[in-house]
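Input/output pair, single chain:
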Amino acid sequence: MNKFHGTGVAMVTPFQADGQVDYDALQKLIDHLIDGGVEYLVSLGTTGESATLSKEEKKQIFAFTAKTVNKRVLLVAGIAGNNTLETAAEMQAFDKTGYDAILSASPHYNKPTQEGIYQHYKALAAAAPLPIILYNVPSRTGSSINAETTVRLANDFNNIIGIKEASGNFELLNQLMRDKPKNFLVISGDDPISLPMIAMGAVGVISVVGNALPKQFSDMIRKCLKGDFKGAQAAHYSVIEFTRLMFAEGSPAGVKLALKHLGVCGDTLRLPLVPVSIDAVERIKNQIGLIG
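Output:
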């Protein structure tokens, strides 16, 4: 399978009950995902609660993750921000040892124009020590990277190799798939619609649900990539309710609860995020039992 085809998992960051990073649980999570057959891992994306981590914590987590993965699968670092100069400096200072690419979300809160988004990524492309995967997630950032801007970036910078596309906008996807360079990767950033996105030409997914169900989800994605959509449909339908519950009370609260129930790590989050409700706990546990 080609690089970054298949299932990547945006890993949670396990915390101890006192809120400190739980490195024993992080090692257990990494092994759980690799043993589950995923193709690559993403460290400190949004799902990793990166917004609540200090620079020193991020540095330590990046180093620990690379050492634990030990080249068993591809590894992507999440480095993003809404201050372009600071984000570029963070990329320049990043120790790329053990990493294969950087995932960088479009600036949040500022709501830049399309030209502003282009110039932001132009500056990052000049600073990045590794290939960049763009990340379009307007539900979190407040603005969207339109198809024209993505195609422009793909054509202008050889080290911008793909996009994690989580807009859910199929009109945008139609245009992007039609106009993008042949080797530019479109990766689903939205678990529930990964199957139809692959049918349109996406090369896989960067998943949240895959934290809890790495084997089930990666098997489904591989079937899709082989063109066996009929075979993939059964798996897709079987996890619809579980997937809905993972996001019903915010991410990564749902998937951390699932991981706790599976014995992988605890469900502690850092404020302003809080654990799921008692009602959601029971529904998530029931779904895990049904999936098996």
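The first strand starts at residue 6 and ends at 10. Residues 6-226 form a domain with the TIM Barrel fold (CATH 3.20.20.70).
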